[in-house]
Amino acid sequence: MPLEPLLPLFHRLDREHFGGTLAPAGRRLVELRWSDGRMCRTAGLYRRGRHADGRELCEIVLSRPLLEPLPREATLSTLCHEMIHAWVDRVLGVREVHGPQFRARMAAINAAQQEFQVSLRHCYPLPAGTGAAPRWLARCPTCGISAPYRRRVKGLACRHCCERLHGGLWHPSCLLEFEDTRLAG
Q1: Which CATH number do you get for residue 106?
Q2: Backbone phi, psi, residue 77, to 5°
Q3: Which of 22, 35, 46, 170 is 20 to 30 A from 59, comparing alpha carbons?
Q4: What is the pLDDT of residue 11?
Q5: Pairing mode, if any, of strands 31-34 and 56-62?
C-alpha cells in the first residue's frame, strides 16, 4: 500500500485516544516522519534527546521499508504504539518503556476500537536484503534467555525479567551481557 501522510493520522489518533494531549492547541509535542529507507529491523521508534547543535529532539519515525507493503492497519498500529511512548514520556512525564502506564493505555485503545490492535511487539516480515548474520549474542544473566543482535546496545535489559521482577520497569540487575559471535566457538 502506498505510504500516506502521517500528520492527519497523528491528529486523528491524538483526538480519539489521547484527548488531544499530544498536540495541545494544535502544536505537536513530537515530530513525525517516515524513515529514509534504512530502518529495516523495527517498524517504528520514539526517541527523545538533542540534535548535534543542541536543539531538542523528540520524534516518531516509522519504517518505510517495513510498513509500505503492509495494510494500513500496520501503519495505524505502529504509529499508535509510538504515540503511547510519546504520551507516557511527554504528557505523563514517566520514564518507562512498556511498563504499567504504557500497557494500561494500550489496553484502553484496543478496547475502544476495532480498526487495529496495538501490541508490544510486531511480527511484520523483514524486507529482502536485511538478513546479515548477527555479530552479537545478548544473554540475560538472570533467566539465561539469549537473542542475536547486529550491534551492541548500551543499557539494554531483559524485558522478561524487568516485567517479572520489577513491574515492567527497567532495572540494572536485568542488563544483558553481549558476546561477540565471531569469538565464540
Answers
A1: 3.30.2010
A2: -60, -45
A3: 170
A4: 96
A5: parallel
